[in-house]
Design goal:
Blueprint (H helix, E strand, L loop, with lengths): L2 H20 L3 H4 L5 H13 L7 E2 L4 E2 L14 H10 L13 H14 L2
Antiparallel strand pairs: 1-2
Length: 115
């Protein structure tokens, strides 16, 4: 590789690191749900039978059909919302059955409770 190309790549790498770390994700900056919202979300989680397939200790759920939510580092609010709305594999989509507010609340609850 040419020396100028190496210097250019090094400069890009150095410049990219601070820029990427300067932006926090919405999940990192989101306020924790208030106790009443946690209770409401937990109730929705149970009313919609999420625990029949997913494990989430906070909700008393130990389902084993879908992925465990506890400790699942691959989840994000947007990912959970997408799965709840559209489903995937054996999971049905609940878009059009649940309100946008309910879906948002469950997604934030899962992210908070799974830790």
């Amino acid at each position: 590789m040419h020396r100028f190309a190496q210097l250019g790549l090094a400069a890009l790498a150095v410049c990219a690191i601070p820029a990427a770390s300067a932006f926090a994700t919405a999940e990192q900056t989101a306020e924790p749900l208030a106790a009443e919202k946690v209770e409401q979300a937990r109730q929705l989680f149970n009313d919609w039978s999420c625990g029949q397939c997913h494990a989430l200790a906070d909700a008393g759920a130990s389902g084993a059909i879908g992925p465990a939510l506890d400790g699942n580092a691959n989840l994000s609010v947007d990912f959970v919302k997408d799965r709840v709305i559209n489903g995937s594999g054996p999971m049905p989509g609940f878009g059009g059955q649940m309100t946008d507010e309910e879906i948002d609340l469950i997604a934030h609850y899962v992210m908070q409770a799974k830790k």
